[in-house]
Amino acid sequence: MTKTIAKELDRELQMRAALVTGAIEELLPVVHPRPLYEAGRHLVDAGGKRLRPSMLLLAAEAVGGDAAAIVAAAVSIELIHNFTLIHDDIMDNADVRRGRPAVHKLWGLSGAILAGDTLYSKAFQVLGMTKARPDLILGAMNLLSKTCTAICEGQWLDMEFEAKERVSEAEYMEMIEKKTGVLYGASAGMGALLAGAAPSVVAALDEFGRLTGMGFQLQDDVIDLITPEMVSGKRQGGDLIEAKKTLIMIHAFANDVPVKVFGKKDATPEQISESISLLEKSGCIEYARSRAEEMVQKGKLALQVLPDSKAKATLLELADYMVRRQY
Amino acid sequence: MTKTIAKELDRELQMRAALVTGAIEELLPVVHPRPLYEAGRHLVDAGGKRLRPSMLLLAAEAVGGDAAAIVAAAVSIELIHNFTLIHDDIMDNADVRRGRPAVHKLWGLSGAILAGDTLYSKAFQVLGMTKARPDLILGAMNLLSKTCTAICEGQWLDMEFEAKERVSEAEYMEMIEKKTGVLYGASAGMGALLAGAAPSVVAALDEFGRLTGMGFQLQDDVIDLITPEMVSGKRQGGDLIEAKKTLIMIHAFANDVPVKVFGKKDATPEQISESISLLEKSGCIEYARSRAEEMVQKGKLALQVLPDSKAKATLLELADYMVRRQY
Fold it and tell me: What is the least distance, in Å, from the CA of A66 to any CA of chain B?
């Protein structure tokens, strides 16, 4: 991706992120009981790149729809994403998210459970306010509820893997498909659906989102190893010492690459650095990177059903960005 | 209520409960990952009276609809109810529910959060499978999502009250309206809506459910004091020693009735019994009972918009049962 394209993509995404952020202010106001809504808004207001709602808006445009009319649906996706972050942070006992204390750190366990539950129902409420044909909104709701169930299954599998001695590549891919892929799939699919696209086009956009979302997750695992804390805000190699069974580690196990710091929370930075070098040299990181690239290329192919347009071009660039980003 | 009417009501409710239980088996199957769905089914399978889904089915019949066609919607209400029980038990650190260990006691905190989240999305998925006109299903989804938000607000208020020195009667009534009333309201409202009733009729059924649901909750507070543990399965006077600011206690505070065991977790059974006697003699229990009766009578008035029918008669009997039950 050349610098000019990257800059242009940045501009396109920022424009849509701003649209979504403005709509959140209107669709998720802080009302009585205020602390509940403040807890709900805590992470939402911390920003993030809003890639999912942007993908929804771009998908609608790429099928010839009016993105501005369905910005409420884009907000609903962002609320679901934030609901999962709040509950996941409780389960992972994470302290920090988006540079802020996690919700449960500020509002306690009960406050965080409820803040997440509130975003969950608000997402469906907000989706119901989308300016689209009732049957299309109902279709979007069915897609979203199915997606939320899959996300819960994905998070369950992720937790189950912690207790498992070995995880297969197929099991890992199923987990990231459900935990991360399906919400990107629903984003692109709902954008197309609400814009009135034919079922086959909706399915193609769903596949595009799902596969590029899986690529996004695989790249996240790579970033954990290659990006310094100064840039990512997260400890480099954190997944290793926490014994996360990422695709990189699954490949290392399969190829008898001895990763000394795996599961060693007291490892020194030098030891971590040594293990990362080994994973790099042995090709384990490259393996995950190439699988990520593969997912994205396959996802992009799905867009062949669409006529050329500015929005389609931006979606293709977004797909590349999802696996080429370094943080 | 005569014994014959009580028996007949029991039969009507059991018939509908059985219909709902059968549909749960089909609509919430235990699939991969099985432990997640087993956790989700744990309380659902423990039964309960299924009053909310029965009210939904009766409301549909009372407006001339086909209850069998919308049994999926009745299941969705029961799933939402169970989702709130699972998350509430985490927040209240409750050990037992429906005679079984609470979900978080068996599957841990993370398992219980996820089991609740899964029932939440499944409820919307299942509602989407209802055999009704798409615009009516969409209307029901909008009603359900609004209701879930209100339930979260109600639970937040309930928790907030624990830290408050004094709670007013108006604050208490708002809390039970949101925590308990609105889901009964949604049950009756959705039943009417999905059966194609006019908006004014839907609103009347919603009001019937909401008000009788509030009466149900007030009666719950009474039952805590008057029903022996042998019958209720809960410690008699448990709300007192746990310092719950029920309407009964709010009335006691307002009238300077000295309830010695309030907030005293180490109170003896004799001391608890003495405080209960005092609440009875001073008219505090009777005050809550009469407010409960009032809510139910007002709720029943809302049904005047309906023509007479077997289902309407059963709804009226159900309303009486909600505040006359002793456990």
Answer: 22
Indicate the CATH number for domain A3-324.
1.10.600.10
- Given an 8 Å threshold on Cβ–Cβ distance, is B87 in contact with A156? no
Structure confidence at residue B1 (pLDDT)? 64
**Which residue of chain A comes nearest to B161, CA vs CA?**
A33
User: Nearest CB to B152: which of A118, A149, A159?
Assistant: A118
| CB-CB under 8 Å, B156 with A36 | yes
Residues of A in contact with B124 (CB under 8 A): 124, 141, 144-145, 148
Query: Which tokens sit at A178?
Result: 């459900």
Quote the longest CA-to-CA distance of chain B: 59
**Shortest distance, CA A110 to any CA of chain B (angstroms):** 5
Q: Token pair for residue B80?
A: 């939402």
Mean per-residue pLDDT over chain A, rounded: 96
The band of B88, judged by pLDDT with boundaries at 50, 70 and 90, is very high
Are residues B152 and A36, on separate chains, in Cβ contact within 8 Å? Answer: yes
C-alpha distances in Å from residue A276, one per residue of A100, A144, A187, A270, A307: 28, 38, 34, 10, 43
Residue A303 pLDDT > 70, yes or no?
yes
Contacts of B90 in chain A (CB under 8 A): 109-110, 113
Q: Where are the alpha helices (DSSP H) in chain A?
A: 3-27, 34-44, 51-62, 71-91, 103-127, 134-163, 169-176, 182-194, 199-226, 229-232, 238-241, 247-254, 269-281, 284-302, 310-324
Give me the residue from A120, A128, A138 closest to B120, CB to CB.
A120
Domain ranges (residues) in chain A: 3-324
Cβ B214 vs Cβ B169: under 8 Å? no
Residues 67-126 of A with CB under 8 A from B: 87, 90-91, 109-111, 113-114, 116-118, 120-122, 124-125
Q: Of A106, A90, A17, A30, nearest to A56 (Cα)?
A: A17
Kindly provide the residue ranges of all beta strands, DSSP E only, lying in chain B, ordered along the sequence: 96-97, 100-101
Flag whether the ipTM exceeds 0.85: yes
Q: How far apart are CA A54 and CA A314, in angstroms?
A: 10
What pLDDT shows up at residue B3? 84
Question: Which H helix or E strand runs over B114?
Answer: helix B103-127
Give the H or E element holding residue A96: strand A96-97
Looking at residue A177, its pLDDT comes to 98
Tokens standing for B231?
């019958």
- State the sign of the Cα–Cα–Cα–Cα dihedral B318, B320, B323, B326: negative
Residues of B in contact with A91 (CB under 8 A): 109-110, 113-114
- Is the pLDDT at A1 greater than 80, yes or no? no
